[in-house]
Amino acid sequence: MLQHFAIVQGAALVGPSEGPGDSGNLAFQVIQFLCHGRDMLAFIFLLGLIDARSEATFGPRDAAALMTTLIVTFLLNPTQDFLSDGIHTYPRMGSEWFLYVYLWSRLVLILLSCISPGWWQPCLVLFAACLVPDDVDWLQIPLPYRDLVANHTSVIWIKGFRWAFLFAPGMYLLSWHAIHAGFLETSKCLGRRIMSKASDHLSVYTNPEVAEQSLKVSFCLGCFAFYWAAALLSSIKTSDSNIYLTGMPSYRHGFQTLYVEGGFESTSHVSHSVSWEYMTHPSLLRYVLLWICEVLLFALPTLVARLGVYQIHRKFLQNKENLRHLFFSTTS
């Protein structure tokens, strides 16, 4: 998200701008290594969690998000591209593309809720994200117009049509319905029971408070270790043209079903589109299984990182409360 807000632009500048030194590419590569789209999914999950506290209707928060998005695109975004004739100007959707994805996801939720609420909503959208090929919609648009849209819409250029219009809204709906159905509270209760049983077993060998703290620290470190392992698996590429860490094990060819990774959606680059022929060769079953695995590769690191941060957040709140009591007790 720091990269999307352009906060880290040139943050790793070391040495002179010309000659030996880092021009800021190091910070970008580290962010790509750690995030690789998972930051967007974490953003979608978080907004689904927050929006689940209210009903699926257009409200002040949606209006504020829409106004913010338009202001960033038309007033604050400096990347204004001109067509070849030099007359017409088209605003380019830059790093704020995640706001458009959120607004689209929110609109999908509101429209589907007008029909009927229920778990069929995320199931339907994710089913479409998996099995509806780009032949049906995106590839029906003439190539010059597809290039025009892709060159002025960074989310299409980087992720592709299916990711932005189907997969991301499907994950937003999944988060919204899971939280709305009480999944978060159920998970908290289950986690407390498991932690309590583990603490009881460990307290036989040590102090109960030490056992509980050790389990919490181990759980937090384990979550972040899993996150780093998933980052290694899905982000490190070894190729002649784009070398991050040569010789390391990796998901070498990038994502291949959620969107075809390996280039940019443009006339002279690799397309992100997933056609029906691509889905059925060599096997549709293999494609579906790989799609499920890639969804897990996107979602699981996000969820375990959130669990680790939750433990840190709880400890911070406890320390804050203890300091508050200590302050008031000393002042009184």
Roughly what percent helix?
A: 55-70%
**Assembly form of the protein:** single chain
> Radius of gyration, Cα only, in angstroms?
23 Å
Shape: globular
Total domain count = 2
Compute the average pLDDT.
Answer: 75
**Which strands sit side by side, in order, in the main sheet?**
1-2
Share of residues in strands: under 5%
> Spans of 5+ residues with little confidence (pLDDT < 50)?
81-85, 238-250
Can you describe this structure?
The structure is a single chain. This protein is mainly α and 332 residues long. It has 2 domains: 1-34, no CATH class; 35-331, no CATH class. The chain has helices spanning 25-34, 38-51, 60-76, 97-115, 120-131, 143-152, 154-158, 161-180, 183-202, 208-235, 276-280, 284-331, and strands spanning 13-14, 22-23, 80-82, 89-91. Strand 3 (80-82) and strand 4 (89-91) form a beta hairpin. Helix 9 crosses helix 10. The longest helix has 48 residues, at 284-331. The chain starts with 12 loop residues before the first strand and ends with a helix. The model is unreliable at 81-85 and 238-250 (pLDDT under 50).
Describe this structure in a few short sentences.
This protein has helices at residues 25-34, 38-51, 60-76, 97-115, 120-131, 143-152, 154-158, 161-180, 183-202, 208-235, 276-280, 284-331; strands at residues 13-14, 22-23, 80-82, 89-91. It has 332 residues and is mainly alpha-helical. Strand 1 (13-14) and strand 2 (22-23) form a beta hairpin.
